[in-house]
Structures are given as C-alpha cells and as structure tokens.
What we know:
- The chain has no helices and 8 strands.
- The protein is an all-beta fold.
- The mean pLDDT is about 75.
Amino acid sequence: MTSALRSPDPEHLQVLEMEGRDEAIVVHATTTSKGALCPRCQHSSERIHSHSVRTLADRPCSGLPVRWYIQVQTIQMSKYIMFS
Length: 84
C-alpha cells in the first residue's frame, strides 16, 4: 500500500482554539474539506478511513514557540491512502 503525505490546504483549515501558555502558544485546528484528490491518479474520494493529529512547529511569536495541532482525515481510495 502506498501512502502520500501532504500539508493541509489553508483554505480548508479551521482554528478551533488558541491558548497562550507560559512556554508556548498552542493552536488547535481541524481540516474542513469533505474529500481529497489522489496524488497518483487525481480522482477525488470522500471515503474517510481514519482521523489523526499532526503536530507542527511554527516560528516564534513574541518570543514564544508556536505549536499547531491539526486534526486531519485519512481518505482512502482503492489501494491508495491520502490525507486531507
């Protein structure tokens, strides 16, 4: 089984919560797209296989590190799995 990883599309990203902590700024977000294109054949699929959380580190803001926690959907299409 082949797996393709890609970053969530910013146009389909919804910020759920932002919190300033002593050690970092933490952002919780989720993707809002209903499907994704297969990176190999370019066909779309809305079949959700699972959900997972991606952790990203961003540049500091006001001297504090910024951490993004983004819930993404794993979309499955025949023998390929893709992320939206």
